[in-house]
Specification:
single chain, about 425 residues, alpha/beta, Heat Shock Protein 90, Rossmann fold, 3 domains, 5-stranded parallel sheet, 14 helices, 17 strands, about 25% strand, globular
């Protein structure tokens, strides 16, 4: 799959563990057994979603009585002498991901249904039933297998096998050839010296000219003395004296067109809306992954000079009247609208016209919105999406929550708040909201 790239799953597993530790009850112990450092071809967002869904399910199973959540990562080989425990495996090397809990377990009469969409044993308002279905879909799309073993009163183990498509020793050569590079000048700011040095060296190896500072105050002074010497600023969020978002504001008061990337953890202390208002162009998540940072930096720099007096929007909704109303409202704001009545048509038009923004309904025939968002993000992880839903017979917030988890930047319930939607469209297309 051309949209996938070499990724180290252990890096993503560690990111998820860090996030999970900060969100689950203290009565749940976390154990890790990460032995594999191999590389697969994949989408980091999908693999992150896979871990998050399985870990969240495991934690919820132990909410009442506590227990142990364990994540394992090992390499296994499937051949005639060492067969894997399920039919359909091709010979070769696999990465085995295990997520286990010591909760109440899953009864035999429902274990065969847990991967079905919307299947859930939770009460109303406690979940959508899409978590394990999404995991199953991701694993299948990677030509992998997922096996569940559960005993009542003992707990549950999910085992996932993903093919290792790039050998560990070949990864650096592949990465060096494929990573985006450049020659622009970058100011890198982080109060931790090892991170500042590592980030600078990483970017220098990609061809960039880099100056780094471990103080936001010193970084501001440097920028003020040479405001036109830098093409991009990358800054940590949490720093003494002046936080990253405040530094970004100060930098943009000196030079409004300077693009800023904010480095933060997944539990970031700044919302997407606030970042957009400040003018932050992108986030880089810690721990910093070389491939992800290289791609983000190149995208921000490439977008730097692209100015839109209008924007091209792809609108996907099966109701003609709603599409007409959308077109009227958006046309009044100066946008070019391409319309589609279902997800399949929308994907075709997206490939043909490469719109700046996609607005999609979630409940449609042929290909509904959740599938459409998943496909769009596979084709272009940076595509900007607004999801809308009336929910049908289901609470629309359930669908919108899934859409948000899949990467939709914003979500709106029907009936639409038009002023808010138009303001959001302008923000996402980097236009003045006034």
């Amino acid at each position: 799959d051309e949209e996938r790239k070499p990724i180290q799953v252990d890096t993503i597993a560690n990111e998820v563990l860090k996030l999970i530790r900060s969100t689950i009850p203290t009565t749940i112990e976390i154990k890790e057994n990460i032995e594999s450092h191999s590389v697969i071809m994949g989408n980091p967002s999908q693999v992150h979603q896979l871990f998050m869904n399985l870990c969240t399910n495991a934690a919820q199973a132990m909410e009442d009585d506590g227990g142990t959540l364990e994540i394992g990562l090992t390499d296994v080989e499937h051949n005639d002498l060492w067969p894997l425990p399920k039919a359909g495996f091709k010979s070769g090397n696999y990465m085995k991901i295990t997520v286990s809990d010591t909760g109440p377990g899953i009864s035999a009469d429902i274990i065969g249904s847990i991967f079905e969409p919307y299947f859930t044993t939770k009460g109303v308002g406690e979940g959508t039933g899409m978590g394990l279905a999404l995991v199953h879909g991701i694993v299948e799309s990677y030509n992998g297998k997922i096996i569940v073993d559960s005993k009542l009163g003992k707990g549950t183990v999910f085992s996932i096998y993903l093919p290792i498509t790039i050998k560990r020793e070949d990864h650096r050569t592949y990465e060096k050839k494929k990573l985006p590079s450049g020659t622009e000048s970058i100011l890198f700011v982080d109060d931790e010296l090892p991170i500042a040095k590592m980030g600078s060296q990483l970017l220098e190896r990609l061809g960039y000219r880099v100056a780094f500072r471990t103080s936001s105050v010193e970084a501001l002074a440097l920028f003020r003395s040479k405001p036109n010497d830098f093409d991009l600023v990358i800054t940590d969020m949490t720093m003494p004296n002046m936080s990253g978002d405040k530094l970004a504001k100060e930098l943009m008061e000196i030079r409004p067109d300077i693009p800023v990337i904010l480095c933060t953890g997944y539990s970031k202390k700044i919302s997407d809306e606030t970042a957009s208002e400040i003018g932050i162009k992108a986030f880089a998540y810690k721990p910093i992954a070389k491939a992800d940072l290289a791609k983000t930096v190149r995208q921000v720099l490439d977008d730097k000079d692209r100015q839109h007096t209008t924007g091209r929007i792809l609108l996907i909704d099966d109701e003609l009247q709603i599409r007409k109303l959308f077109i009227q409202k958006m046309a009044d704001s100066g946008y070019e609208i391409i319309e589609a009545s279902n997800g399949n048509e929308g994907l075709k038009l997206y490939r043909e016209h490469k719109p700046d923004l996609v607005i999609t309904d979630l409940i449609m025939p042929e290909k509904e919105g959740i599938e459409t968002i998943t496909e769009l993000k596979k084709e272009n992880p940076h595509v900007k999406i607004i999801a809308i839903s009336g929910g049908g017979r289901i609470n629309p917030n359930d669908y919108l929550h899934i859409a948000k988890n899949l990467g939709a930047e914003r979500t709106f319930s029907k009936p639409i708040d038009w002023p808010s939607l138009i303001k959001t469209v302008k923000e996402l297309l980097n236009q003045p909201a006034g």
